Amino acid sequence: MSLRLRPMRHRLHALCPYFAMFPPEFVRDNIEAYSRKGDLVLDPFSGRGTTLLESLITGRKAIAGDINPVAYCVSAAKADIPSLKEIEDELHRLERVQAKTDVGVPVEIATSHFFRRAFHPDTLGQLLFLRRTLQWRENRIHRFLTALTLGHLHGESDRSDHYFSNQMPHSISTKPNYSVRYWSSHRLQAPSRDVFAILRSRAAFRLETGVPKLSGRAALCDVRQIARAFRGSAESVGIAVTSPPYLDVTNFEEDQWLRLWFLGGPPHPTYRRISRDDRLRHESTYWDFLQASWRGIAPLMRPKAVLICRIGAKGKEPDTLMKRFSQSISSIWPRAHALFRPRVSELKRSQITVLNPKAEGCRYEIDFGFSLA
Known about the structure:
By secondary structure, this protein is of the alpha/beta class. It has helices spanning 5-13, 24-34, 50-57, 69-79, 84-99, 107-110, 113-118, 121-133, 140-152, 176-185, 195-207, 226-229, 252-255, 257-262, 283-297, 318-330, 351-355; strands at 40-43, 61-66, 217-220, 237-242, 301-312, 337-338, 343-346, 364-372.
C-alpha cells in the first residue's frame, strides 16, 4: 500500500465507525487481484461503503446500494466527498441560522427519559436543529455532515470528547431502558458538547490527508431492485465485492436505531420497518434471499465478471454454508466456477460477544470467489 494513501484510507473508512466485519484490506486485495483500473466495481450490500471507497482509491469506478438509510448515507458521503472549504462554509452558515432559530423540542423527545439522559440540553438542541435542517438525501455537503454526525452521535464519552452522548458503545445504539438504567446505576451525566465545533474539527481531521480523485454513486434501494437504480450500468460491472447480512446474527435496524432516529426515524428501536430481511433466522428463507439478491444484480454483471463474497452464520457448520452458497450462485449463473477454495476464518471475538460475553455469536466467516461465466 502507498504510504501516501494509508492515512487517507484510515481516516475516511472511519467516517462513521459502526461495527462491520468487512476489513478494507480484504476488499483491496480482491479488487487488485481481479480487476483493473477503470473497471466498474459493485457492492449491493454497501454497509459503511468499504468496497466503494477502496474502489475509488485504487482507481476503479464504483456503484453501491443498501436498503438501510444509515448505510446509504455513509456510503453516499464517501462516494462524493466535498472539499473542506465547502464543509466549513456550510457549517458556519448552519451555525448562524441555528443561533437565530428556536427549534423547540418535540413532546416525544422532551418527555423521553432516554433523550433527557442521553444528551446535554444544549447538545440536544443543536442535534435537533441539524436533524430538521440537513438535506442528506439531496445535498452532497449535507450528506457528508450527516454521516460525520452519525459517526459521533454516540460513543464512549469517557474515552473521547468527540462523542455527543452519555456513555454508550460507538458501534451500536443500546436500547433506551437499558441505557437509562446503566447511566442511573453509574451516576453518569451527559457531557456538554458543541456539535458544530466537533464537526468542524473532525471534518478537518478526516480530510487533511486528501480524498479520492474519482467519485462513485450510491443508491438507497433493495438489492432485488438494484439494476433499476443503476440501469445505465447494465452489463458493465467487472467485479462485485460484498458481504450480505449474515444468517441469524445481527438486527441492524435495532442496533442502529439512534442513528436511524437522526435520519428522521422514530425515537425508539424498530423491527423490520425498513426491511423484512434485516435478520433472517431460518436457512430456507436466507438462501432464498441470497438467490433473489444474485438475481437482482445479474443484469449489472458483464460476461465473466467476478463475485467475491464473505458470509457468516450462527450455529451452522462451514460445510453446509459452502454447499448452500455455491448452489445459490449456480442457480443464477449455471456455468460459474470457483476462483479459489472457500476460505474459512474463525472469529474469536465477534461483535455480539464483545458486547455480551455470554452471548452466542458468529463463530467464523467464509470467503468465496466465483467467475460468473
